[in-house]
Known about the structure:
Blueprint: H1 2-18, E1 32-39, H2 42-53, E2 63-79, E3 85-100, E4 106-118, H3 123-152
Parallel strand pairs: 1-2
Antiparallel strand pairs: 2-3, 3-4
Helix pairs in contact: 2-3
Amino acid sequence: MKKNIKIISILACSMLLLSCGFKQIQGKKKIQIQNINISGENRIAYVLKNNISLMSDNNSKNKYDVEINIKKEKKNKIKDLAGRVIRYELFIEADFKLTDLNDNKIIQKKFIKNSDYTVGSSHSGTIDNERNATKNIIRQLSEDINNFITFLN
């Protein structure tokens, strides 16, 4: 009798967990990006271009051109008592321009992201910290730009 109750309770719990009601969002409009022109930092431009082109669907009726101008700036944030920099702040600004090729409507937006990084014990440590901060900012910019394009449709 106890064995049957255990089996029934396990089956009931698994049924409840398996039927959670998750559904993939339907009706998400697809877009086709004809041209992507990115100027500025070459490494940043390459990654952004790849991330944006991943959302393009060649079968879509909505066709767009994308232009992005990238500016990267590094500033001293914190200095110690001797005047040496111990923390930097990195800014990446992307001026985004989306042109709808169907009706020539132009949408512009500026994306600005920043991150801090510390000076390493060696120069290569500082460069690694800057590289990691740049990767994080690029990832955030890519997500913001993709979300912006998606919500426009």
